[in-house]
Amino acid sequence: MKISINRLKDFMSFDHSSEEIAALLTASGLEVEGIDTYESIPGSLEGVVIGEVLTCVSHPNADKLSVTTVDIGKGIVPIVCGAPNVAKGQRVAVATVNTTLYTSSGESFQIKKAKIRGEVSEGMICAEDELGLGDSHDGIMVLDTDLPNGTPANTFFNISRAEVLEIGLTPNRADAASHLGVARDLKALMRRPLNLPSVDNFRVDSEALPIAVEVADPSDCPRYAGLTISGLKVAPSPAWLQDYLKAIGLEPINNVVDATNFILHDLGQPLHAFDASKIQGGKILVKRLPEGTPFTTLDEKERKLSGSELMICDNEEGLCIAGIFGGLGSGISDETRDVFLESACFSPDIIRRGSQYHGLKTDASFRFERGTDPNMPVYALKRAAMLIKELAGGEISSQIVDIYPNPVQDHQVPVKYRNITRLIGKEIPKEEIHEILRWLEIEVTQETEAGFVALVKPYRVDVTREADIIEEVLRIYGFDAIPLAEDYHSDFLANHPAKDGNRLQYRMTEILSGRGFSEIITNSLTKASYAEKVPHLDIDGSVVILNKLSEDLGVLRQSLLFTGLEVLAHNINRRQKDLKCFEFGTVYCKEGEGYRENNNLSIFLTGNQTSESWLAPAVPVQFSQLYAVVEVILQKLNVGEPSVEMVEEGPFEYGLKLMLGKREIGSLGLLSASIARLAEVKQEVYYAELDWTALLVASQGVKKFQEISKFPEVRRDLSLVIDQGVSFAFLKSLAEKAGGSLLKRIGVFDVYTGDKIEASKKAYALSFFLQDNEKTLTDKVIDKTMGRLMQVFEKEAGAYIRK
Asked: Cβ atoms within 10 A of the Cβ of 163, count?
């Protein structure tokens, strides 16, 4: 949700910087995720001033150039100008030295002091396109103004600039989904009054176009208000309104629709404007229509109604899906002259069902689904009517129809002072509690020594319990104002032999983070096309979403691969090419008539291990680096030694499959380039996906420890020439049998294939580490063990031992 700082200042006076406002809101629960700057003209013409041409003569060394002197307020500067219309006495826009200009074509350039054909030039007299104000380059702009020389040009051109807060609104804070809602929190945080625009000047001009309203079920629509405006002219909105909408991420449409969007984001009250000439029978009916009824919405799509959504109808047909999306037939067009303006309060449940059924998420449905203020519709209607009349002309041509049979009362919430102290952890003075609640527009009534009853206005749909009141006090009082005692601790009496999966996952997160990996969290929804284009995923196993938001989010993922690759692509496209990422996530698969979920761990490596420097060149990531990480995870989980099988299929160019008994616990390898390109990744990616659910089950065994040997370890190396088809895993299994308990571990420190051995052969250099826990090894024992190893390699693997 985007909130304009300029608009907040219309509601209340403050001199705080955007960063200070962001810190206040974040500390109170409205987390500000970023601060952006909107400029109606890029650069806001900073460094451009109004000047006056004092002299203008032909350039001595160029036919089409003029040499001028220009008064820019702070002095007189020489400027060489190539415009044919430059002349003495003109008031012009001058870009001073070091100014950066942004042209209409999107290019930018900096003004520098220069010599042009031998004449000094200290600035530039600007044309319309050079300032980004239009496309004309026929000549310089000649200004009609009495402003003093040196006046910033953005003052003359009325350039709009606004700082905008990006707030990550939590679902419970429906009341804050507007500039007014955010201003209410600032009012309590800064203890400053709120200034709501007055509607005292609202007047009904005539009753020439009355439209009756009938609500079939007040539980679906607790309040419905409306009026008509006649004789207006639909046209583009003025610049101030267009700039406001653009700043908060909306595209201007026309003055009528833009006015309703302005009020929506200003007050949090959605409105809808109907072309009054399209309302048959002069009557609005708020009701449900039969299942299967066709209805064409503003996006020109015909939809079949479910029968459960609420509709705004006339005597003949549906006009709008209430609180969600308007109909094509009754929408505002350039030919519209008369408007019926709706301002209502709908049941959150019915709006949520309709929105999900049709897959429509709009600014209006977002607010209605969470609950809007039932006391706001008439005030918002008056504000909108006055604004439309100001922007589009016409007259208010009916009395306000306001159907509100069962007014919503304030919530009554009993609160005990001892519970405030108990939950907050600090005793806050009663006067401070009352003051905070008063600024939050929560009335304290029926006060006793023990507590009070809080009266909460209906727009605070999330404040219904004592704990909610206490939370309101705490977030305004300040979380940071609550001291932490030194003796805080946790205790438990019971024994917990079973391993906690969450703690194990957290431990693995620490291990991977300590090795330089970044955790990612991706969407469980993904593209159906991935399963269609790769052989290792089952297209029939895809779990398809019934109410798709889009085709890109149409199915639940069968693997963590592609959502992770999309993260890699996003970073690589922003020149972050050396990436080490991991994710714990759920994968889904359809099995017969049911579904299966599983928790997996994915690991991605791409780019370089180390950055390039003067000491050493960059080193690309390698398969061994990925395997080492997987090996550490298995060791820390105490799952035992998995068996390993080579794979050259599925998503891999080459890789390994890890087995515990007959169950596959994961796979790792170099991703196929064609698989990576499906997510627009064009560099090598090493990838592992482990069955986290299976690993947790396998890790339940008791961990065994042994005393560290007091006797030294001995290393011996062998060089073997073997067939290309012989794997290290096979050699390792032979060595473990022949070496017995003395052989502690085996490693490969060199692999060679080349013209010095046969094409069908390869050479492995292996290291063997021997140790006896009871005594020091003698040369005789070592030689005997190595002899057995060489013998078994020659016999079982057909190896040639290089001596």
From this structure: 19
Does residue 638 belong to any structural domain of this protein?
yes
Confidence (pTM): 0.61
Residue 528: alpha-carbon gap to chain centroid:
22
Q: Which of the 8 DSSP states describes residue 295?
A: E
What are the tokens at 565? Answer: 């690759």
Residue 709: what pLDDT?
A: 81
Q: Which two three-digit tokens encode residue 391?
A: 């922007």
Question: Same domain for 230 and 379?
Answer: yes
Question: What is the rounded distance in angstroms from the CA atom of residue 173 to the CA atom of residue 364?
Answer: 15
Residue holding tokens 């017969």? 592
For residues 693 and 557, membership in a common domain is answered with yes
- What CATH number is given to the structural domain containing 637? 3.30.930.10
Tell me what pLDDT residue 238 has. Answer: 92
**Which residue has 């309104």 as its token pair?**
241
Same domain as 677, residue 654: yes
Q: What is the pLDDT of residue 487?
A: 60
**794 part of a folded domain:** yes
Q: How far is CA 20 from CA 5, 17, 165, 477, 486, in A?
A: 11, 5, 11, 17, 30
What per-residue confidence (pLDDT) applies to 617? 84
Question: Do 28 and 100 have their domain in common?
Answer: no
Buried b (16+ CB within 10 A) or exposed e, 700-739: eeeeeeeeeeeeeebeeebebbbeeebebeebbebbeebb
Query: What does residue 722 show for φ and ψ, rounded to 5 degrees?
Result: -135, 170
Q: What residues have CB less than 8 Å from 149, skipping those under 6 apart?
A: 49, 50, 51, 52, 71, 72, 73
pLDDT at 619: 85
The DSSP code for 152 is B
The CATH number assigned to the domain holding 420 equals: 3.30.56.10
Structure tokens at 297: 């919405």
The three-point CA angle 187-472-188 to 5° equals 10
- Residues 327, 395, single domain; the answer is yes
Instruction: Give the residue from 698, 725, 753 where a domain finishes.
Output: 698
Judgement on whether residues 457 and 379 belong to the same structural domain of the protein: no
Residues 251, 237: contact at Cβ < 8 Å? no
Residue 172 covered by a domain: yes
**Alpha-carbon dihedral sign for residues 195, 200, 205, 207:** positive
Residue 237 identity: S
Nearest to 686 by CA among 611, 629, 621, 628: 621
pLDDT of res. 488: 57
pLDDT at position 255 is 95
Q: Please tell me the total count of domains within the chain.
A: 6
Distance CA 174, CA 164 (A): 19
Domain that holds residue 231: 212-403
Structure confidence at residue 39 (pLDDT): 86
Decide: 522 and 564 in contact? Cβ < 8 Å: yes
In the block, tokens 């005789």 appear at 780
Enumerate the β-bridge partners of residue 748: 766
Beta strand 443-445 with 663-671 is unpaired
Last residue of a domain, one of 642, 672, 698: 698
Q: CA dihedral in degrees (564, 570, 575, 577; nearest 10)? A: 10
- What is the C-alpha to C-alpha distance for residues 370 and 171, in angstroms, rounded to an integer? 7
Q: Are residues 629 and 669 in the same domain?
A: yes
pLDDT for 493? 47
The reply to whether 706 falls in a domain is: no
Residue 768 sits in a domain whose CATH number is 3.30.70.380
Block means of pLDDT (10 residues each) for the chain, 803 residues, are 93 92 93 90 90 93 92 93 92 93 85 91 92 86 92 88 91 92 94 92 94 94 96 94 93 95 96 94 94 93 93 94 93 94 95 93 93 95 96 95 94 94 91 95 94 95 93 92 68 54 88 93 90 82 82 87 93 92 93 87 92 82 89 86 77 87 88 90 93 85 70 90 84 87 84 83 89 88 90 89 80
> 10 Å Cβ neighbour count for 683?
14
How far, in Å, CA of 668 to CA of 659, rounded?
Answer: 12
User: 361 and 277, same structural domain?
Assistant: yes
